[in-house]
Structures are given as structure tokens and as C-alpha cells.
Amino acid sequence: MTSAQRVLVVGCGIGGATLAYALRRNDVDVHCIDIKPSTPPTGAGICLLHNAVRALGTIGLADACLESGLPFQVFKQYDAAGKLLASNPAPPGCGMRRPELARILEGAAASAGAVMEKGITLRDLVDRGSHVEVTFSDGRQASYDLVVAADGAYSKVRERVFGAEHGVRFAGQSAWRFNAPRPAEVDGFCLYRSADGRRTVGALPTSKETCYLFFLENSAEHLHMPDDQLHVLLHERLADFSAPVIRDSLAHLTDACQASFRPFDITLVPAPWHRGRVVLIGDAAHSPTPQMTSGGGMAIEDAIVLAQSLQQHPTVPEALAAHGARRYERVKTVFEASLQLCLYEQEPVPNPQRSAALLLKTYQYLGQPM
Questions:
Q1: How far apart are CA 68 and CA 63, in angstroms?
Q2: Which of 14, 41, 113, 131: disulfide with 102, CB 3.0–4.6 Å?
Q3: What does the radius of gyration of the chain's CA atoms come to, in whole angstroms?
Q4: Dihedral, CA of residue 322, residue 301, residue 13 and residue 282, to nearest 10
């Protein structure tokens, strides 16, 4: 029997939905809430590396993701004109569309009996030691054995329980993203670098038919882009890239709503990630830059390890301590590698070979058990 019989998960994203499903497999009463309304999820793509696919396999969801996305095992580097500079084997991964991953995870959790409630959040939270009393934004009240904050990098639960000092900081870089039909060339993780090495466009498959592209932009401070001009601004920024993959993909970018722009706001909360009966997982505990494409994968691992710890330990405090002991150093290693790659890309004269070596080294590290 698990040490927590009634759990509130705040956030229905990747980590929250994975946890809701994993807990229901252990017959835990799960209530998962999200402040966002019940609308179809949006977003570009996501790369599930081999560790994330392996983790999803432990709860029976890997096959659905592999069938929806496109598995790959190659990391390729090109110049701005599309000339192949290097091709290296990479540990198996899977690119897929974020809305598809959300559909699989949320659908599995709901089908297993988790209560998935949108358009609601917490108004108040009081940890009584033996349980946590909460008041929701609609005035309802309830008590739980455990509250899990899976509410992202800007977590309100983290701020309330852990303090504002663990909030995000800007990493000096932002990403532009957009979806496109998939050319045959985009059969793995592809990077296209400008001649001076200071500008990078990436492409990842998200299904047999689709891919997504991203462009990394450096800046000393947060940049603010007009929402109705994103497509125009992105066309301008990529004008010097003549690679056919990039030109053909940009031809499909005709409206601002097709593009997104997001600064890299990061945090790594020091251990322990719990205070009493409130615990952080996913981006609420560790929001990395995306260079290792591991933010979602780390959230999936967090969720599965937490469910395992609650099943394996007789009390909630013991389970939370065990969860943190298994997760912190692994997450810290990936977080620091992602940030170092981001900082390398901001140097006056970047060294692509050094970055590629660190990327592949950390891929190999992720092959170790979670």
C-alpha cells in the first residue's frame, strides 16, 4: 500500500499528468488541477530522449508515444547552406508533437480514474503535519495526504511554500519555434550553424509527416516581441540561412499564430524539494534551458520516481526524502550541462565541436538508470 492515499497534483502538464497516471496504477485517489481552461493544448514539438522513453515504458505508455511520434538515433550538424558537416549516432529518442503527448498522458490518467480538472487553482494551503488542507479558487475545501506542485517554472505553489528566492532567472537566450512539414533530411536532431558559429537553427521530427524548427537568439536582457509580428520577425532573422530545409519550412510560416517566442527563464531549487507534505516536481523544481531537450523527460522521471517512492516507503516523509535522494544529482547534472551549452552559444567565438562533445557525453549519462 502506498504511503499517500489521497494526492492533489497542481498542474496537468507533462509531469503532473504522468504522476496522476502512475499513482492511479497504485490505486491512489488522485485529483489533478490546472489553472488553464479546458482547451486543446498547443505548442510545437518535444524530444523524448531514450531515458524518457524508457521511463514511460515502466508505466506502459512508451508504445503510444513511439507510434504517435518518430523515433530517431542520429545527431547531425550542417552549415547555414545545408552542407552536412558531421553525423553522429545518438541514443534512441522520439520526436513528437506536444499536443499529442498531452493527449496520451492526460487521457491515460483520466481513463485510469484520476480526476482531471481544468480552470481551477489553489487559493490557500495549510500543512497540518498529518495532512494538507487546501482551499480552491472556487471556494471548495479539501484535505490530502500530499500536495505535488507540478505547476511549471513560474510555480505559485513553490513561491508560497518555498519562498520567492527560488524564482526563475534569465539565461541570456530565447527560442523561436514553428512547425512545418517534415523533409526526409530531418530524421533526427539536426543543427544548422551560421558561418561565424554564433547563430543556430535546429530541426527535430515530430511525426512521419511533421517537424518543428527552432532558432536561438542571445540577449543581455529579456526581449519582448509583438505577438502579431512573430512570423515576419522570424523570416528576417533567418534570411541568411539558405539550407533548403529552412527555406522550405519558412515558406509555410505565413501567420504570427504559427510561431512562438520564449525567453529561457531557469531555476534549480536546492535540495530538498519538499517542505512537509508539499513536494515540487518538473519545472517547478528544475527549469533548464532546452539545449539537452530534457525538461519534459526530467519531469516524467520525477513523476515515476515519486510514485515508486510512495509505494516503497511506509510514510510520506520517508518517501519524499527517498525521492529527492534519487533525483537531485541526476537533475543537477543535466541542468548544468544544458546551461553550459547555452553559455557556450553566447561566447563571442563559439566552438561547435566542444558543444557537440558535451551534448553527446550527457546523452550517454542519461543512459544510466533514473
A1: 9
A2: 41
A3: 20
A4: 60
Q: Evaluate whether 151 touches 309 at the Cβ level (below 8 Å).
A: no
pLDDT tens-digit map of 285-320: 999 999 999 999 999 999 999 999 999 999 999 999
CATH code of the domain in which 122 resides: 3.50.50.60
At residue 86, what are phi and psi to the nearest 5 degrees? -160, 145
Q: Is the dihedral of CA 138, 141, 144, 147 positive or negative?
A: positive
Angle at 51 between CA 47 and CA 52, to 5 degrees: 50
CB 99 within 8 Å of CB 17: no
Residue 110 has φ and ψ, to the nearest 5°, of -65, -40
**Which pairing describes strands 45-48 and 84-97: parallel, antiparallel, or unpaired?**
antiparallel
Helix (H, G, I), strand (E, B) or coil at 225: coil
Query: Are the CB atoms for 295 and 283 separated by under 8 Å?
Result: yes
Cα distance between residue 264 and residue 266, in whole Å: 6
Quote the CA–CA distance of 115 and 166 in Å, as a whole number: 30
Per the structure block, which three cell numbers stand in for 45? 514539438
CA 211 to mean position of chain CA atoms: 17
Q: Determine phi and psi for 271, rounding to 5 degrees.
A: -70, 150
In a domain, 230, yes or no: no
3/130 Cα distance (integer angstroms): 12
Spell out the residues 6+ positions from residue 235 whose beta carbon is closer than 8 angstroms to its own.
250, 253
Look up residue 213 and give its three cell numbers: 524548427
316-363: per-residue pLDDT in tens? 999 999 999 999 999 999 999 999 999 999 998 888 889 989 988 998
Over the stretch 60-104, which tens digit does the pLDDT of each residue have? 999 999 999 999 999 999 999 999 999 988 888 999 999 999 999
Q: Is residue 315 part of a domain?
A: yes
| Number of separate domains in the chain | 1
274 within a domain of the structure (yes/no): yes
Q: How many residues does the chain have?
A: 370
- State if pTM tops 0.85: yes
